[in-house]
Amino acid sequence: MKICCIGAGYVGGPTMAMIAKQCPDIAVHVVDLNQARIDAWNSDALPVYEPGLDEVVREARGRNLTFSTRVDQAIDEADMVFISVNTPTKTFGIGAGRAANLEFVEKCARQIARNAKSHKIVVEKSTLPVRTAEAVKRILSSEGNGVTFDVLSNPEFLAEGTAVDDLLHPDRVLIGGESKEAIESLCRVYASWIPREKILTTNLWSSELSKLTANAFLAQRVSSINAISALCEATGADVDEVARAIGTDSRIGPKFLKASVGFGGSCFQKDILNLVYLCEHFGLREVAAYWEQVVMMNDYQKRRFSERIVKTMFNTVSDKKIGVWGFAFKKDTNDTRESAAIYVCRDLLRERARLAIYDPRVSVEQIRADLCYACADRNGQVCGTDRDLIENNITVVDDCYAAADQAHAIAVLTEWDEFKQVDFAKVHDAMHRPAFVFDGRNLLDREAMESIGFELHSIGKSR
Ligand code: NAD
Ligand code: UDX
Q1: Distance between CA 98 and CA 91 in Å, rounded?
Q2: Sheet hosting strand 455-458, strand order edge to edge
Q3: Which pLDDT belongs to residue 298?
Q4: Could you tell me which of 255, 251, 259 has the C-alpha nearest to residue 231?
Q5: 158 CB less than 6 Å from ligand 1?
Q6: Which numbered ligand comes closest to the C-alpha of 112?
Q7: Distance from the CA of 180 to the center of ligand 2, in angstroms?
Q8: Residue 257: how many CA atoms within 13 Å on its side-chain side?
Q9: 4 in active site
């Protein structure tokens, strides 16, 4: 059996590395248009930071795992072709700001059709709007050389930061399709290391829709607890206590109830907006409005956090140094897509604060690029004032202490474990008074911080 995966990103790379590790008899070829990304997969500095991923890649690479840009050849040689390309929110034309941009998926389907000389199983690994498989099937059969195709939907449920563990021990694997033989071929791959009862099979449309629904439900939980965090701050209740109290109800469960500065990541917002677009397309206005509120609540939470910083710091942060701890959208990843930190930093910059940003895994180039993107207008232009602020009011530093040195405040925006190990007395000594800490992840202990002399502001806790 030979597998090809088109798209060597956060999903394609780790997923295929795990299949190759667990199935030494299967040759896995991961291809991408992006030469730099492929070079990184072939080096010791992988393009994706995930705990445990280096070991998985090292074990399989060169044995039965290959990374290259030879897309046509990889398709031709494979029995099974995974499509794992990006499906971002459209930024132009019909459905701009909501619908998924399916350009890359369609290009893959056409490329598969052109290069296939024998029967192929085509697997949708990307997250796609329900009924995309119909379009993929039509393209394959109309553009092809007369060879036959089976299309399967196999959405990926891994979360970044825990990808290796999620791939090793998934709650379930979902496979949607029409052909029993094709479904069984893919089941056999996963059954090499995953118990059969965890491999769910269904029809194509249920599989496609389950992925959008899972992300919508998860994001909804975060927005729900974040909504309650605002009420906690107004009333004197403590959001962590409320989360504990409701999470012990077995019908609710304890996971995904951590109040925060807002959810980020490449999936939640994109997939909910896609769901909203689909609902509107089918005339389900009330359903669309219901889900859209999850994203609106998240925007409110991010905005509320930066406004609270300004308000608390005597209504001005202009020319004040704020140390920003963490820029990734969650710990244990170098991914910053839709990170709450981007929007909080943008808002503080526009208040003319000076930001000293530290993240253990995110590069200075990435931080500047993200802020330019967040400041850009509809045409992608960044106005002169924003550009000057990004150039002059941001420094990216090498550790927490440099970020805190001579700072008026610290904002904790990612829950990196190392932030808990900091010598807070040393941090306090280096800061202006009052030494404000705005903890967007409820990472820090109030009693310990106050005994050192900090003024701690946490999410969902009044002072
Ligand atoms: P990504 O942007 O990290 O990677 C996608 C890759 O596809 C890029 O390297 C790009 O160069 C490549 N590509 C695009 N068009 C191509 C083409 N025609 N030929 C060859 N390569 C091409 O994206 P990702 O985060 O890996 O996400 C991929 C899909 O998986 C998306 O649909 C996403 O919604 C879904 N997903 C992502 C996650 C996650 O945690 N990131 C989790 C589950 C599902
Ligand atoms: C998510 C889904 O969990 C995963 O199943 C899907 O395949 C891709 O999208 P990911 O975005 O990588 O994964 O991370 P996740 O752990 O879901 O966190 C998303 C965001 O929500 C992060 O910014 C995180 O900090 C935030 N979050 C999560 C909270 O604020 N509170 C929580 O309780 C949980």
Answers
A1: 8
A2: 394-396, 354-358, 321-325, 409-412, 436-439, 455-458
A3: 98
A4: 259
A5: yes
A6: 1
A7: 33
A8: 17
A9: no
